[in-house]
Amino acid sequence: MEKDKPLALVTGASAGIGRTFARRLARDGYHLVLVARRHDRLDELAEELGGAETMAADLTVEADLERVEDRIARASNLELLVNNAGFGTMGRFFEIPLDGQDQMHRLHVIATMRLSHAALGGMIPRNKGAIINVSSVAAFGQSPGNVSYCATKAWINSFTEGLDLELKSAESLVRVQALCPGFTLTELHDVAGMDRKPIPAWMWMKAEDVVDASLAGLAQGKLIVVPGGIYKAMVWLLRRLPKSLHHAGARRYGRLMRREAAQKR
Question: Is the dihedral of CA 96, 97, 98, 102 positive or negative?
């Protein structure tokens, strides 16, 4: 019976890391609620998985966010929330349209905060469950052309760390995790208009490996999970480099990207 299964709700489930989470969790015996904007992609995935509840919702829209909040609040068997929905943009903050930046903050920050609050409202009394907030290695620094993306992912890390402190101080068994992948082969970069070619092939990870690392880390109680040895080393270095050196490197990267963009025109 589906009602006897643990429930997992995954946002941004129609593609990439979210879709991979859905496949893995279905295999692990969860009943699923799949949330994304594209109804056709959700129905296709639900059929592939042999059945799942789907919710077509744009979490930057108040009415849609409220519907998903309500579904979470009513779920007496919710054991896992994966706040995965997200997107990136390319371009300097002061040159690109504000709408995309506004939506990014609504999705990465407001939706993550509100859905987490709805989930914890049921998980804490049951003393059971977990939340995975999908962040990024971009959370550990800044780079020209990605100001809002880096900032909102840094917020996700800080928010998740704060929740972890509160849960531990309340002696709750509910767990939280900030998952911080590096370059992953998904549609995210295509939507952002990013050219994959300048990034060496060895830096790209498979979504399956990212999800495996996340769930293994969750089982071990890890708060921050950075999949892949190269990205673990990168984050270790970023945390220890003086900001002046990091900023100098970021400025150089920004100039290189600007020259490359100018050559393509």
Answer: negative
Collapsed DSSP state (helix, strand, coil) of residue 11: strand
Chain centroid offset of residue 25 CA? 16
The CATH number for 209's domain is 3.40.50.720
Contact 140, 149 (CB under 8 A): no
Range of the domain at 181: 2-264
Quick one: how far is CA 124 from the chain centroid? 22
One digit per residue, pLDDT tens: the chain, 265 residues? 456 789 999 999 999 999 999 999 999 999 999 999 999 999 999 999 999 999 999 999 999 999 999 999 999 999 999 999 999 988 999 999 999 999 999 999 999 999 999 999 999 999 999 999 999 999 999 888 899 999 999 999 999 999 999 999 999 999 999 999 999 887 654 554 555 566 778 778 999 999 999 999 999 999 999 999 999 999 998 888 776 665 665 566 555 555 544 444 4
Angle, alpha carbons 6-11-14 (nearest 5°): 105
How many domains, in total, are found in the chain?
1
Find where tokens 């407001």 sit.
110
Q: Which among 138, 136, 85 has a CA at the least distance from the CA of 112? A: 85
Give burial (CB, 10 Å; 0-12/13-18/19+) of 47: exposed
What residues are annotated to the active site? 149
CA distance 242 to 246: 7
